[in-house]
Amino acid sequence: xxxxxxLLGEQVRAVELGAKFDSIDGGTLSLSDWNGQPVLxxxxxxxxxxxxxxxxxxxxxxxxxxxxxxxAAVPRDDFQQELATNYEVRNFCELQYGSDFSMSxxxxxxxxDAHLFLRSLKEVEGFAPRWNFNKVLIGLGGTAxxxxxxxxxxxxxxxxxxIEELLP
Length: 168
Description:
Helix content: 25-40%
Number of helices: 4
């Protein structure tokens, strides 16, 4: 079920948007800080064959940032395809792709050590990243609107049409 809430008897469960990510630039990031804005969360890996999507993510961000879109990358090394340090990841993304969207430090996105947001996404939505560059679009009210696999291009109509519906 997409929509961010799951009714279990009388208990309502929601995707955990308030869980803090450590920012690659220092401080923290929380999806709840962007409530009222669409957020595309993408688990990334710099040495993955899909790393070219960094450019497409930046292009998407450049196209819609002034209308409120947030792109949040969550680098992961669960498949040993990430650079060794957070500094190397940020430097790679800035130098290779001009990336200036929000980014967390290298974070587990699968298994028992997965970040709380991603664990709750699996519990509530049944979605867990199966590879790098999986994407989830969070809507204006903080609900999961849609999820996308690695092969879905960030500038594909399936993503941009959903974003267009959410933006003014």
